[in-house]
Specification:
Layout: H1 33-42, E1 48-51, E2 57-60, H2 63-71, E3 76-77, H3 85-91, H4 104-115, H5 117-120, H6 124-138, E4 143-145, H7 146-151, H8 154-162, H9 170-181, H10 189-207, H11 215-220, E5 223-224, E6 227-228, H12 231-262, H13 264-272, H14 277-287, E7 292-297, E8 301-303, E9 306-308, E10 313-317, H15 319-322, H16 356-373, E11 378-379, E12 386-388, E13 394-397, E14 399-401
Parallel strand pairs: 2-10
Antiparallel strand pairs: 1-2, 3-7, 4-14, 5-6, 7-10, 8-9, 11-14, 12-13
Helix pairs in contact: 6-16, 8-12, 9-10, 9-12, 10-12, 14-16
Bound molecules: protoporphyrin IX containing FE (HEM).
Protoporphyrin IX containing FE (HEM) binds next to helix 4, helix 12 and helix 16.
């Protein structure tokens, strides 16, 4: 708990910019995750406000501002991306996220080759086969716990195979990744980093000089400015990929399927016209952003009518870009024909998510195969959906139900829904 004197307003923060708001507890009055953030935006006192919580930081509340801060590394550095700066921020020195250009690019290149559309294409069949086998495990049961039986299975199994780590390690790694993105107070950030490092050290040592095709082997044996990676760099690069890959798609899928369960007309539109699924995924990414990250102010400056001081943090909730009504008309409506989609769901600028193509591919395949087999479903009667905030917002659990007679069996991937790369 932060004490009252920590909640004071610094002299350079105008009173009208002061807002007592905790980004780790964004939920309001029984509202959902996105509705809560949006309420804050609607009630905002200014586009840039200051909260005393989590060490005190600025908070960008407009889509265009979020996009600008995430992309302008000269003024807003990635040196620190998490708040509280003194604890979480200091512990999170992951690579490449904590590096600014030009240091960032050579490390980012190591990631790009293993996660590009060219790298993902050959595993699409495997993703489809796994999707189908998961669905077939519960289809005839008339219901499932979507979070544990599907969302936590598909992206994590795919991811563990990309990095070639044993599936048995998944619970431990997922727990550690969750402690980064939604800390529940059971571990400090330095403890999480130590446990990740102890886990990764023998794996990195064993794969040094190896010729395996997995992402870890490829990354740690790559060269940066014509030299090999140090052990610390290799560790921080691998940790970054694990943190980025283990939690985000799981929750993106859960938010999307909760929406689909409650919107039969959208389900029908995609089930009857699977070619529209790739475009739909772009709109769903706009509608269900999850990530909240920050930047460190590089120098004293006037910005958005206030004085920013070097070292202060500006936090950017990406939900407030895609859901900003000045950027996307009627932002809570999911419109598969939306002419122009604006969002920062996968970030902006040099740190734009390298896993975005994989995430979109998994969602596209899930929608295609699920809707071909279970075209009609709803939230299970009596189930109460709960959300949590944090660096990555989440649906705590989601139980779905359907009439078995309305489902279709089938072990072959469905046709249609190819993948033009879309935002
Ligand atoms: C729906 C799923 C996902 C969302 C919403 C998402 C969102 C984001 C965002 C907003 C950033 C930029 C952070 C910043 O600028 O500070 C980012 C970066 C990153 N993401 Fe993702 N991500 C997703 C999936 C993934 C996956 C599947 C992986 C890995 C397999 C991944 C790995 C990374 C990495 C390594 C970075 C850092 C990139 C850099 O610093 O250059 N992400 N992600």
């Amino acid at each position: 708990m932060e004490t009252a004197n920590l909640l004071e307003r610094p002299a350079h923060v105008p009173p009208e910019r002061y807002l007592d708001f905790d980004i780790y507890q964004p939920l309001r009055d029984g509202l959902g995750f996105h509705e809560s953030w949006s309420r804050l935006q609607a009630e905002r006192k200014a586009d840039l406000v200051w909260t005393p919580r989590n060490g005190g930081h600025w908070l960008a509340l407009r889509g265009t501002l979020i996009n600008q801060v995430l992309g302008e590394y000269v003024n807003f550095s990635n040196h620190t991306v998490l708040v509280p700066k003194a604890t979480a921020g200091e512990a999170y020195r992951l690579i490449p996220l904590s590096l600014d250009p030009p240091a960032h690019a050579p490390f980012r290149n190591l990631l790009n080759t293993g996660m590009s559309p060219r790298a993902v294409k050959p595993i699409e069949d495997r993703i489809a086969a796994l999707t189908i086998s998961l669905i077939e495990r519960f289809r005839r049961r008339g219901g499932c716990d979507f979070t544990t039986e599907f969302a936590e299975q598909l992206p994590i199994t795919v991811f563990m195979s990309i990095v070639d780590l044993p599936e048995a390690d998944t619970p431990k790694l997922k727990y550690l990744a969750d402690q980064f993105t939604r800390p529940d107070g059971k571990m400090t950030y330095p403890e999480v980093v130590t446990m990740f490092t102890e886990y990764l050290a023998p794996i990195i040592a064993a794969r040094r000089g190896g010729s395996g095709e997995d992402l870890i082997t490829r990354m740690i044996n790559g060269r940066v400015n014509d030299r090999a990676l140090t052990d610390l760099e290799a560790n921080n690069l691998c940790m970054q990929v694990l943190v980025g890959g283990l939690d985000t798609v799981v929750n993106f899928m859960a938010f999307v399927m909760l929406f689909m369960a409650e919107h039969p007309e959208h389900r029908r539109a995609l089930a009857t016209n699977p070619e529209s699924i790739p475009g739909a995924v772009a709109e769903l990414a706009r509608r269900f952003p999850l990530v909240t990250v920050g930047r460190e102010v590089t120098h004293d400056m006037e910005f958005e009518g206030v004085q920013l001081k070097a070292g202060e943090m500006v936090v950017c909730p990406t939900p407030l870009h895609g859901l900003d009504p000045t950027e996307n008309a009627e932002p809570f409506n999911v419109d598969f024909g939306r002419p122009r989609i604006r969002h920062s769901t996968f970030g902006n600028g040099s740190h734009t998510c390298p896993g975005a193509h994989l995430a979109r591919t998994e969602l596209r395949i899930m929608l295609r195969e699920w809707l071909a087999r279970i075209p009609d479903f709803h939230v299970a009667p009596g189930h109460r959906t709960e959300f949590t905030g944090g660096i990555v917002g989440s649906v705590k659990s989601l139980r779905l139900a359907w009439d078995v007679a309305s489902t279709q069996s089938g072990t072959e991937p469905s046709a249609g829904a190819g993948d033009p790369a879309r935002r």
